[in-house]
Write a structure and sequence with these properties.
The protein has helices at 8-21, 26-32, 36-65, 75-111, 119-141, 166-194, 207-239, 252-286, 293-306, 322-334, 336-352, 359-382, 384-390, 394-424, 430-456, 473-503, 545-557, 590-607, 610-629, and strands at residues 567-571, 578-583. 67% of the residues lie in helices and 2% in strands. The chain binds protoporphyrin IX containing FE (HEM) and copper (II) ion (CU).
Length: 635
Amino acid sequence: MAIEVLGPRARERVGRLDRIWEERPGLIGWLTTVDHKRIGILYFFTTLAFFAAGGVEALLMRTQLASANAHVLGPSRYDQVMTMHGVTMIFLFVIPMTIGAFGNYLVPLMLGSRDMAFPRLNALSYWLFLGSGCLIYTGLFLNMGPDAGWFDYVPLALKRFDPGLNIDFYALGLIFNGISSIAAATNFIVTIFKLRAPGMSLNRMPLFVFAMLAVSLSLVFALPTLTIDCVFLELQRRLGFHFFDVGHGGSALLWQHLFWFFGHPEVYIIVLPAFGIATSIIPTFAKHRMVAFPLVALAELLVAFIGFGVWAHHMFTTGLPTVTLVFFAAASMMVVIPSTIQIYAWTVTVMMGRPEFKAPLLFIGGFIAFFVIGGLSGIMFAAIPFDQATTDTYFVVAHFHFIIFGAAVFPILGGMYYWFPKVTGRLYHELVAKLSFWLTFAGTALTFFPMHIVGLLGMPRRVYTYQGGLGWGAYNLSETIGAFVLTAGLLLIFGNLLWSRFRGPYAGPDPFFGGTLEWTTTSPPPHYNFAVIPRVTSPYPNWDRADRDEDARRLESGELVLEEGHETPASTVRDGYLDEVLEMPSESWWPITLGLLVTVLFVMLLLGHFVVAGIFGALAVLALGGWHAQEPAEA
Ligand code: HEM
Ligand SMILES: [Cu+2]
């Protein structure tokens, strides 16, 4: 609702809201912000930097493997670069990008709320994330980066075989990163259940938000096993415990079971937000509501749920009993059902609509193609004999890159183009965007498809080089060429967005006629998101023109403007009735202070200065005391 069309009283109210929700300008404002949009933007640029680092690591590997017997990277450096590529892309890029950046920026807007349930906890989760990323990368810069692969199997990761600090950077870094993710996931769960606009019952929640709910629940249930696994590893490496020592009643498989109990749900934590992005973009450009809406919402939750029952399909060659293998093989095949429901709903919605293939929808088209190809090789792995023949070859590397790059990164790129006008107020260059899609699509296919073939020809993963005459050279060379074509596509995307940020035409609040609430407010949105809290009567509230016209009248009358303070409505869990009005905290120094104290604590643990670590732990508890002393006054 543009200010120039508002009546005098409405303008006055908007002016009051601007003053109440204003944050300090400049660097101080960013260091003390608790605004979910600003925190989302901090996550966006930080994860983009980690994506660039992970990409450089990928290009280094590809250059090393472009031909037999190359000397770009030696074995130890290769192990570090390969491990850091996997750790970076998964823990520091794809998950914090979808949840931290997209989720943070969009979920409160899509719910019709003014912020996340716990704004300061939200800021803290960002600073902890940044601290954990810097800690892990310090290891690489000191040439002692994690080097036992992203799943870090023991006994290779034990002190006997890896005596330096490499694995301690991994284990402590992931424990640290896990705290940030759990804090963020908890925030999303409470926000989604309690901070929805009046009338937004659960069955009217956007599918993007359902995906975020499924992801957050998965994080809360899966991450603790990774954390405890890393704690066990540190206790064994530092204090000589025997969790993974067969000779002392421990088991090396304990690491694998705990790791993959987290690790497999992790892959759905990676793709579910991407499903959410797809279900946002498709209705807008198909100009048609998502078909089978309730089924798609259910399928998103089912994927997350079934994902907790398949972990041992990563352990088909570890000597587990056949009955166990058969159970996990069957469970792994079951995941196909909710995934296929979604693929049908996406394609049928486009077919039933009047699709306009703008860049965001093209990226979703690419996503569906790669997801189907990656999914098919996934089904093949569920067949035990096939897995036993191909595990640890490049066929595996091909499979998960088709899924991760095709089915997670493509929606992220499409989502960047789709919500760019909302975040910046500008339009991107459509023709360049289409070109960037085709370049990225071709590069992705050329990089990762030949990996299937060279894998079937027996090339193992994680080798830093290979000898000539095995028939692997040509495939590796084409993969490397593909990786550079893909990089060119990515650079064109970011070049387009950077140029458009300053030179693109103005977008206005709703350039694509989206159906969800973020398109009802200005671009970019004000700190308080909505001048008047919208009322919701369907899953596509921005298409309900009568309700939106009502907004202007209510702003004039002051109904649900909540202009007495930092206020946002809380709702009942199921029906989304207005429950109460919450007074929200404003900008604060406590999140970054606590983030810094916890970072120093982990550095001291890494260096083995346990007493100093204890002191910083005590300071962190004190800071929490100060934090709570700053609670906003009861509304
Ligand atoms: C930018 C394009 C990318 C290229 C060219 C690329 C290339 C590679 C290569 C060649 C390997 C195999 C290393 C080996 O086994 O020796 C690898 C491993 C891996 N990649 Fe990528 N990758 C890319 C993007 C991504 C993304 C976006 C993700 C996840 C979000 C990812 C996650 C992984 C993981 C988890 C591993 C396994 C590392 C390990 O074995 O410990 N990659 N990648
Ligand atoms: Cu799995």
